[in-house]
Amino acid sequence: MSEPFDLKGLIAIxxxxxxxxxxxxxxxxxxADDLGIQSIDLIKIVMAIEEKYDMEFExxxxxxxxxxxxxxxxxxxxxxQA
Length: 82
Fold this sequence. Notes:
The protein has three helices and no strands. It is mostly helical. It is globular and about 30 Å long.
């Protein structure tokens, strides 16, 4: 892994996948309501994270992912278990 997984990195990937300015995304940004993320978008974001950090995530419960901060916490837990 070339760099640590952090919130800034997650926001950069989300922004890249959604083609929006990273400055428009915060930890409190609601994935669906604020960013318009749908299930397919979330899959693409997770795949981009896996590729960038050379990591595979276990099944992710999308019901737990309401905000960018939720996604960061859930994915961070899986990084620490690897």
